[in-house]
Amino acid sequence: MPYKKPVSVLVVIHSPNLEILLLERAAHPGYWQSVTGSQEDDEALIETAVREVGEETGIAISAADLRDWQQINTYEIFPEWRHRYAPGVTQNTEHVFSLEVPRDADIRTAPGEHLGHCWLPLTEAAAKVFSWSNRDAILQLALQPHPDSATQSQ
User: Model-level pTM?
Assistant: First the structure.
């Protein structure tokens, strides 16, 4: 099995009312997160985000549905997951995206990857995730301009 690239995406999925979709990791019950995943081969990051949303939630989207924050986080890969990467790789570079979907979107989590999902208010979701970068992105979501609100104020 080839090594994973130490380049990934984080996609914060939210409702129009900023309720956050979280997924519970199958390998670590009690570890909640937004959609995440590693870039494969020569895939563009936006394509990675589209693919991961589909794989992890069953939601079919296009690149135009995503909002690229142009934000990069670098963090240390947990020791328990380093075997997935080439020897000596200890840092991952994560690119942040968000996706707005209706609260009643049909979510179908990947059985081998996630135990289930939940929708939580923004601050509760930020407190529940295990990753600092996921927490910070959720909290920053409240500060992001939303295209719908901009057109309503004109």
Answer: 0.91
> Is residue 41, in this structure, part of any structural domain at all?
yes
CA angle 119, 123, 125 (to 5 degrees): 35
Binding site residues for Mg(2+), as ranges?
52, 56, 113
Query: Which of 139, 106, 110 is closest to 25 using CA atoms?
Result: 110
* pLDDT at residue 32, rounded to an integer: 98
| Pairwise CA distance, residues 19 & 99, whole Å | 12
Q: 34-79 pLDDT, tens per residue? A: 999 999 999 999 999 999 999 999 999 999 999 999 999 999 998 9
Is 111 part of a structural domain of the chain? yes
Binding residues for substrate: 4, 25, 36, 131
Asked, for residue 53, whether it belongs to a domain, the answer is yes
Residue ranges of the chain with pLDDT lower than 70? Answer: 1, 145-154
* Residue list, annotated binding site: 4, 25, 36, 52, 56, 113, 131
The enclosing domain of 46 has a CATH number of 3.90.79.10
